[in-house]
Amino acid sequence: MKEQLEQILATAIADLQQQGVLPADVQPRILLDRPRDKSHGDFATNLALTLAKPAGMNPRALAEALIAALPKVDWLAQADIAGPGFINFTLSQQQLIDQLEHALASATTGIQAAPAPKTIVIDYSSPNLAKEMHVGHLRSAIIGDAVARVQELLGHKVVRQNHVGDWGTQFGMLLAHMEELGDAELDMQLSNLETFYKAAKKRFDDSPEFANRARELVVALQSGEARCRKLWQQFIDVSLSHCQEVYDRLGVALTRADVMAESAYNDDLPQVIEDLKAQGLLVEDQGAQCVFLDEFKNKDGEALPVIVQKSGGGYLYATTDLAAIRYRQNVLHGDHLMYFVDQRQGLHFQQIFTLAKKAGFARADLQMDHYGFGTVMGKDGRPYKSRDGGVTKLADLLDEAEKRALELVQQKNSDLTAAEQEHVAKVVGISSVKYADLSKNRTSDYIFDWDTMLSFEGNTAPYLLYAYTRVVSIFNKAQINPAEVSGEFVLNDERELELANLLVRFNEVVQQVADKAMPHFLCGYLFELAGKFSSFYEACPILQQDDQALRQSRLKLAALTAKTLRQGLQLLGIHTLEKM
Ligand code: ARG
């Protein structure tokens, strides 16, 4: 509806320009807001206020002229002037009903497909494989996955890229430690990469011979020495299978096929350097190859270097990312490259995006965006740590989530069998962790707190999952298939109208999530929807309603609420439960 409204406003402006009321050269940006207060209509615009000056008119008079010039459409019930010159629009009830019917019938619950589908390459999760995934890896995996689902539903082609760190000097130390262990012991030790890494590091710090061997092995690995490669491959395979277990448990849609590791770009790195050199972009600084970009300066106003090759000849994180941009554009045919990576890498991405364009690695119209996120904090306000003060392995964290959820489910004393309780606990535990992350503004740090995330009150997964089962139970009780409710919408009660008006905003919210890569908009919406449904359900009896027409209409509102909640949670990567 927003677009239609924008359209008729644009027509009105063009009309006023033709009449000479507005200067022909103004190109106004039409902003439409959703007023908080329903008495201000469904949409509001400050258009007359922004155009008053170029038009040389009083804003209220201009608002009046704009309203008079609006083409007549049956879906608009009213346009009123408010305050100094705002225009409030009230849509007709028929268009509200049409939208509800459309959402009920539509496979996507009324979410509009993108008019021009793109290929979107989404870089997410992308852990370093030297260690096991820990709590710091949650956000990229969870947020990136939700955005990927949203883009896919909008009809874009999404290519997932798991840019895992499988290269670099730490691997020398790990390989040296592998060499020292017998096969049987190696298998056992690799089952916990966290302790394996620690043991290797300790050997490295304690023994100079070991450290030397580790350095030799880095050279051997980089020169492609076969035995060394094999050992490395063994380590990488184990580490990737640990990651896969975490993705499967989290319901993150990444597979081995999405892995495009740093090492996959090795062969292209000398070419990256050659091409930068040919462009005259390289400067040697203390033996290292650097590019200085004027766009990025330190606090003394000096240009900051992007180092692309070390004095010893080794390549860097940035070099690999430049190669990856080329690959994503030329081989994957990406139109938009999205990166879900910790906020602290913001400068790195701004630099390589700028450099990729400057060097012609990226077309001028290639869209590249880094979507940063804040840190996961403990209740003490510091980065989240396990009880022993170390980093928390993700696998352990998920175990704990399931365990806590099971206690919760058992306490609820429902009529579920033990097996059903286990299942519910798994879904509730994992969703709580995911939802706690998704529901916070991506760019802020957030506090990881079991009690809040597992609460049945507030904007949490348990609350929403439970709200969904309550809606579904209405249909189960009456043995009605929610997809087959007949009848017309009759919207008279204020609570019915509020619920209906919120239901039809689903599309708008999902588009916003796609635009800004901010899943918390959707969480906030679903939370509000569950609340509005509750108030409606309390005030407006459904199954006990004697008036058949009203009963059917309310059943339809309930059916659309269930459908919207399920679709919304699905987009967030959360499975709904039929009972809990
Ligand atoms: N492996 C990196 C890290 O853990 C993140 C990689 C993000 N993706 C990229 N293309 N740089 O910090």
Automatic annotation (TrEMBL):
Where the record annotates domain Arginyl tRNA synthetase N-terminal, the positions are 3-91
Which InterPro entries does the protein's record reference? aa-tRNA-synth_I_CS, Arg-tRNA-ligase, Arg-tRNA-synth_N, Arg-tRNA-synth_N_sf, ArgRS_core, DALR_anticod-bd, Rossmann-like_a/b/a_fold, tRNAsynth_Ia_anticodon-bd
- Which reaction is recorded as catalysed by this protein? tRNA(Arg) + L-arginine + ATP = L-arginyl-tRNA(Arg) + AMP + diphosphate
- Specify the enzyme's EC class, one word: ligase
State its location(s).
Cytoplasm
What are the annotated GO cellular component locations? cytoplasm
Q: How does this chain assemble?
A: Monomer.
Q: Which family does it belong to?
A: Belongs to the class-I aminoacyl-tRNA synthetase family.
Name this protein carries in UniProt: Arginine--tRNA ligase
Q: Which organism is it from?
A: Pseudidiomarina maritima
